[in-house]
Amino acid sequence: MIATGSSSAPPRLEALENIDCLTNRDIFSLERLPATFIVLGGGPIAVEMAQAFNRLGSRVLLVQRSGQILSREDADMADTVMAAMADEGVKFFLNTTVTDARQEGDEKIITVVSGDGRTMELRGDAVLLAQGRTGNLTGLGLESLGMERTGGFLAVDNRMRTSLHHIYAPGDINGRFQFTHAAGYEGGIVVANAIFHLPRKADYTWMPWCTYTDPELASIGMNEKSAAKAGIEVRVWREDFQANDRAVTEARTRAVSSWFWTAEKGSSGCR
Does the keyword Kinase apply (predicted)? Predict the structure, then answer.
């Protein structure tokens, strides 16, 4: 069994290797709050750290290559989180590509090009590199085995078997769901198959996850984006919190929930 986890993906731009970038592993070792904090990426780690450092007092600039943060989520939910963060002062640069990077003393200078072709220089005291994850495969001697990969991860079937069926790869190393609870679940699949020889398969129908921003964005099961990708028609019931007594008394009326139904399975997801 290979369960070596994942690490922050290396920089997509070679120039970023020439500056001191933080990752999710070493960001908590900072001894001084950066005056200006540049975040490269728009996934859960990026947005959670962006909001946290903004609330601690940093000026935060978040650069995202696509037009939406939290790309796994439906656009309306991701936009709700982004609007809340923007109201607090986080500045977003969407559809923006990093083209160069350099360091002058302690100052990091990131050159970016916006979707409309404008070139800008963003200057900050710290840069968080949060542009995805990659499996920890180095130093394992896997090159000679010819194991199939999916991007930077090991490819597995629903029994957690790699292309060499006697080798299993649960958890972050397969790149499916990079959550602790998902790794534990997949580990159980391995035990069932490898130890007890039961043909148990992973079923992610009701896999839950949460992004710990404020407001939090929690999901379980199917959403509109995953339904469309699978070619499944869903009905959506959306409920805003403006008329919710508890939300009103706590001044948290920005919240929203959605429920999803399919003709075949009925209730299929919630966010």
Answer: no
pLDDT of residue 196: 98
Two tokens, residue 177: 């769901």
Contact predicate 25/8, CB 8 Å: yes
For residues 69 and 105, membership in a common domain is answered with yes
Residues 59 and 157 reside in one and the same domain: no
Cα–Cα distance between 14 and 35 in angstroms, integer?
A: 26
Q: 10 and 129: one domain?
A: yes
What is the per-residue pLDDT across 7-18, written as a single tens digit (0 to 9) for each?
A: 999 888 999 998
Q: What are the strands, taking DSSP E only, across the chain?
A: 6-8, 21-22, 36-40, 59-63, 91-93, 97-104, 107-113, 119-124, 126-129, 133-135, 149-150, 153-154, 208-211, 217-221, 235-240, 256-262, 266-270
Question: Smallest Cα–Cα separation from 123: which of 61, 56, 53, 58?
Answer: 61
> What pLDDT, on the 0 to 100 scale, is given for residue 51?
99
Q: How far apart are CA 196 and CA 216, in angstroms?
A: 39
> Minimal CA–CA distance to 94: which of 85, 104, 107, 103?
85
Give the range of the structural domain holding residue 168, as residue numbers without chain letter.
Answer: 135-195
Q: Which residues of the chain have pLDDT under 50?
A: none
Looking at residue 242, its pLDDT comes to 85
Same domain, 118 and 168: no
Let me know whether 125 and 139 are in one domain.
no
Q: Which CATH number does the domain housing residue 70 bear?
A: 3.50.50.60
pLDDT of residue 255: 84
Number of domains in the chain: 3
